[in-house]
Amino acid sequence: MPMTSRTAIVTGAARGIGAATARRLAADGHAVAVVDLDEADARSTADAIEAAGGRALAVGADVADETAVARAVERVAAELGPPAILVNNAGILRDNLLFKMSADDWDAVLGVHLRGAFLMSRAVQSHMVEAGWGRIVNLSSTSALGNRGQANYAAAKAGMQGLTKTLALELGKFGVTANAVAPGFVQTEMTKATAERIGVPFDDFLAHAAKETPVGRVGQPEDIAAAVAYFCSEDAGFVSGQVLYVAGGPRA
User: Fold this and answer.
1) pLDDT at 161 over 90
2) Which of 62, 108, 110, 242 has its CA 20 to 30 A from that of 37?
3) Is 245 known to be catalytic?
4) pTM above the 0.85 mark?
């Protein structure tokens, strides 16, 4: 059967995993709203999608801002159509050891990751419920299991899993599924910034991560996008409330 084209929203889609996911969903035939804090940054991803023959809209919005989220979703619905797919990918890092971590850095990370996912999910669910079909995919992380220097990020990513399972319970009867993808080490600008912060050359950082990964390489944004695309597909209609670790295998 031919795939049904729907409207998708991907947050944090200016670069990295979000950009790869937006491009993959567009390649799958969906119209994609590329949401990021700076609309100019989002436009580069949207332009790439359109250059490849897809439909895209660049939207600037702070996902932690309730009013901005409402306006963004309204704009997407008006210009691309009611959103049926939501990928909550927006995120930031404010890493530090617990005794050095400020309350502001804690709040900023929880705000973008967890509050942002809540606000976006709440804003789109009415469109999905009305249509009787929807897909919500939240980006978690292997850091949800705990990671030194990331108390805020780990808590946010663990919270994404709890949010996912609750959305699955509440929205399932309306034809809406909710799942999470938890990446391991992925080569992005964010991991490059982490290497710079700790004073390690990025090539060495990548080599160490690859050595610690059973498949012998680090992840690429496209690896994560492929997993997200499955959860967004028609084929995943009986899969909900799940957390898929896309990390190249378990660590010993």
Assistant:
1) yes
2) 242
3) no
4) yes
